[in-house]
Amino acid sequence: MNHCPFGVALIGANYNDSEQIMSFGVSMIKPTTSNPATSPELTDVLKQSVVAKRMQVITILQSASTEFKAITFANSYGAEDMVLTDIIAKEKLDIKIFSLDTGRLPAETYSLMGEVEKTYNTKPVVFFPKHEAVETYVQTKGINAFYESIELRKACCHMRKIEPLQRALNSKQAWITGMRAEQATTRTSLPVREFDEGNQLEKFNPLSDWIEKEVWAYIRMFDVPYNQLHDQFYPSIGCAPCTRAVAIGEDVRSGRWWWEDPKNKECGLHVKAAKP
Ligand code: SF4
Fold it and tell me: For residue 140, what are the CA distances in angstroms to 144, 163, 166, 174?
């Protein structure tokens, strides 16, 4: 078993220690076994559940896009967001899709972006961070300063994610996410619809009650493109330096900011505003 400098054990259950690469984040560990989570057995019960839930999602999205003309979907290119991308594209729903490019995404995410362009015959709408903010942060704090403290990590997430998200949501009435309730301790009571206090608009989480197996069954049944890192034990993928593979049975979000307390592990995109 190896340890990173932050005191986190890198469990070797699924990986060959000799193949670990001395760097942090994406591509840190080379898997030596296939990932059962991304290829669930497609039983009739599972397929029926996915088909039924797909219809529920279509209903939610149709209703939301009728109620709110200025509605948008934030596609992070994770497995859940690929399910929603597929439904919005195939059902030709009147919902604009955008994504955020933090400048620190893994190469596999950019490959997927290109694949999505071809599969759905579309060009991505991408919001980037303001270059002045990034230049100042790097020059004053360092290129990987987010490892040094929660404050510096949140400052990085703010300039690379939250500020671009605020621009993306500017003048929108509602937005849609691919969040699921079972994804993290911070999301256990996730409703399908809620008011986003932080961004002051309506928010829909149509996959709230989906379990991981249903997400992957959908991807297999409908031949949806997905990030190849998922097959390498990355259930949740964000920026390359802040994402690592997880062992079977670990919380799906445990590979994100793995050096921090689980209660703090949100980047701020989906954090409720503090009540006065
Ligand atoms: Fe910065 Fe990491 Fe947050 Fe990405 S996930 S914005 S690299 S702190």
Answer: 11, 19, 24, 36
> SS3 for 8?
coil
Residue minimizing CA distance to atom 2 of ligand 1: 242
- Rg over alpha carbons for the chain, rounded to the nearest Å, is 18
Counted residue by residue, the chain has a size of: 276
Instruction: Report yes or no: 269 and 248 within 8 Å, Cβ to Cβ.
Output: no
What is the value of pTM for the model shown? 0.84
CA distance 273 to 276: 9
What is d(CA 176, CA 22) in angstroms, rounded to the nearest whole number? Answer: 37
Helix (H) / strand (E) element for 201: namely: strand 201-204
Residue 198's nearest CA partner among 126, 266, 119 is: 266
- 92 Cβ neighbours under 8 A, 6+ residues apart: none
CA of 164 to the centre of ligand 1 (A): 13
pLDDT tens, position by position, 151-175: 999 999 999 999 999 999 999 999 9
Q: Give per-residue pLDDT as tens, 14-47.
A: 333 333 333 444 444 444 568 889 999 999 999 9
Burial class (CB in 10 A: 0-12, 13-18, 19+), 140: exposed
- Distance from residue 79's CA to the centre of ligand 1 (Å): 19
